Amino acid sequence: MRSQLSVLAGLCLLAAWSVASGEKLMFGIAIHGGAGTMPRAEITPELEAQYRADLAQALDTGYGVLEKGGTSQDAAIAAVKILEDSPLFNAGKGAVFNRDGEVELDAGVMDGASRRAGSVAGLKHVKNPIELARLVMDKSPHVMLIGPGAEEFALDQGMTLVPNSYFHTEKRREQLERALKGDRMAAIKLNYFGTVGAVTRDKQGNLFAATSTGGMTGKIPGRVGDSPHIGAGTYANNETCAVSATGHGEFFIRSVVAYDIHALMDYKEMSLDKAVNEVVQRKLKVMKAEGGVIAIDSDGHIVMSFNTEGMFRGARDSAGRREIAIY
Ligand code: ASP
User: Fold this and answer.
1) CB-neighbour burial class of residue 182 (10 A; exposed 0-12, middle 13-18, buried 19+)
2) Residue nearest atom 4 of ligand 1, based on CA coordinates
3) Could you give the CA distance from residue 34 to residue 89 in angstroms, rounded to a whole number?
4) In a 3-state reduction of DSSP, which class is residue 149?
5) DSSP class per residue in 24-71
6) Ligand 1 binding pocket includes 314 (Cβ within 6 Å)
């Protein structure tokens, strides 16, 4: 009897130790600020420092929410809002212009626990599209709302709208002018950088994915990218992973990138690492589709992968990892 009790006590100690060491209960966050061909000449040391500072602020804010026991949802939204408010990234303020010189914004969120999702597209007046995507998920019977209907819903929910000029920046205006002049390469180079996203796992083990973007410079008005397409640019499922993508949206939609990573883990029992590698480094490359993803699995393991020159990114977890990187 006594030996059985001591075995039991030993097992309890072991369980307590593995929880304390964070083996199974690891929480963490990864963020991205877009992937693409990075013209090194355009990123001065000062500008790089600004990018890193805004990424750090988003990363640490999201991590802080998780550390205090907040939900994966609150952490991801808090991080993405900071990147939307930064003029450096192609989301919210500082987003790219469409062909007509207007900003049109898309965003999507998915909750890995309930598998509920919300997304918005073609917004012209919502300061933080990621907030509206969350409201679509939480307060509407739908998954996706677009254009004026989405903005009316935003007003109904008590959000204040801003003029389109709030989003405008000189840098993006120049990019549009170059793109319209037929400097296609310049447009492509500067395009893919800047979509923002976050994936999180909280202390309860719940996963969440959030992505927000202005799309592509010079796009035809009404064009919608992969970010708000659940399964393409954004996906989360507690059983497998949460994924947020950035890259050439048309390819990412056709390849159903985020869901594909989930499906490889689900049906083929691949690790997150292998699944991401298969999709980003093989499948997308075969299609000549440029971009990358950030992802977190049900154990809190973070993977960030891209097939471009760089991807603005950051990762932080309860095991002590903290990194911010561009190339
Ligand atoms: N994926 C975004 C889109 O096609 C663009 C980007 O990631 O920069 O809308």
Assistant:
1) exposed
2) 249
3) 8
4) helix
5) SS--EEEEEEEEE---GGGS-HHHHHHHHHHHHHHHHHHHHHHHTT--
6) no
Whether 292 lines ligand 1, by a CB cut-off of 6 Å, is no
Residue nearest to atom 8 of ligand 1 (CA): 192
For the CA of 233, the closest atom of ligand 1 is 1
CB-based contacts of 7: which residues, under 8 Å, 6+ apart? none
Verify whether ligand 1 is closer than 6 Å to residue 228 (CB atom). Answer: no
Give the H/E segment covering residue 263. Answer: helix 257-268
In the structure, how many helices (H) and strands (E) does the chain have?
11, 12
Q: Examine the residue annotation and report whether 240 is marked as an active-site residue of this protein.
A: no
310 Cβ closer than 6 Å to some ligand 1 atom:
no
Q: How open is the CA angle 283-289-295, to the nearest 5 degrees?
A: 65
> Which ligand 1 atom minimizes the distance to the CA of 291?
7
H/E stretch holding 20 reads helix 2-20
Residue nearest to atom 7 of ligand 1 (CA): 246
Per-residue pLDDT of the chain (327 residues; tens, 9 = 90+): 455 555 555 544 444 444 444 455 699 999 999 998 777 777 889 999 999 999 999 999 999 999 999 999 999 999 999 999 999 999 999 999 999 999 999 999 999 999 999 999 999 999 999 999 999 999 999 999 999 999 999 999 999 999 999 999 999 999 899 888 876 655 555 555 689 999 999 999 999 999 999 999 999 999 999 999 999 999 999 999 999 999 999 999 999 999 999 999 999 999 999 999 999 999 999 999 999 999 999 999 999 999 999 999 999 999 999 999 999
Q: Is 249 in the pocket of ligand 1 (CB under 6 A)?
A: yes
Say what the pTM is: 0.91
Question: Distance (Å, rounded) from C-alpha 2 to C-alpha 27?
Answer: 37
Atom of ligand 1 nearest to the CA of 223: 9
Tell me how far apart the alpha carbons of residues 276 and 302 are, in angstroms, rounded to a whole number.
11
Question: Could you tell me if the CB of 213 is within 6 A of ligand 1?
Answer: yes
What CA–CA distances, in Å, run from 142 to 30, 110, 252?
27, 13, 23
